[in-house]
Amino acid sequence: MAQFVCEICGATFEQKSRYDRHMLTSHPKRAVSAADLEKALQGIDFPKRHDELIDAVRGEEREVRDIVERLPERQYRDAAEVARAFGELRTHEKAPANQPSKTGGERSKRQ
């Protein structure tokens, strides 16, 4: 009799190592997307410091909280800046400084 049963597809396994391999290859975890992050930030009032963002997403999935914790320590003016920082984490490249939210925000301060 099988000791390990996949709760997703019902496949059975005698050995835990085969069950673990099945879970990794047949049902891999979905990576956190920008949409997941945007959903977690919905309803949050900006600006927020990094530590305040972490507190704001406490009730979210562990993977989303891990991403927010890995963001650079700085003040975020809006969700677009958080998304830009998330993109930098994923690509390991610095985003250009002339992003629309940044230039638009500076223009609105002058008016």
Descriptive key words:
111 residues, mainly alpha, 2 domains, two-stranded antiparallel ribbon, 6 helices, 4 strands, elongated
Order of strands, main sheet, comes to 1-2
- Please write the string of helix (H) and strand (E) elements: EEHHEHHEHH
Percent in strands = 5-15%
By secondary-structure content and strand pairing, the structural class works out as mainly alpha
How far the N terminus sits from the C terminus, by CA atoms, comes to: 73 Å
Domains (count): 2
List how many beta strands DSSP finds. Answer: 4
Please work out how many helical segments DSSP would assign: 6
Rg calculated over all Cα atoms: 20 Å
Largest sheet: 2 strands, antiparallel
The averaged pLDDT comes out at 84
Low-confidence sequence ranges:
none
Helical amount among residues, as a percent range? 40-55%
Could you explain how this protein is built, in words?
The protein has 111 residues and is mainly α. It has two domains: 1-30; 34-93, no CATH class. Helices cover 53% and strands 7% of the residues. It has helices at 16-26, 34-41, 50-56, 62-70, 79-91, 100-110; strands spanning 4-5, 12-13, 48-49, 75-76. The strands form two sheets. The chain has a two-stranded antiparallel ribbon with strand order 1-2. The chain has a two-stranded antiparallel ribbon with strand order 3-4. Helix 2 packs antiparallel against helix 5. It starts with a strand and ends with a helix.
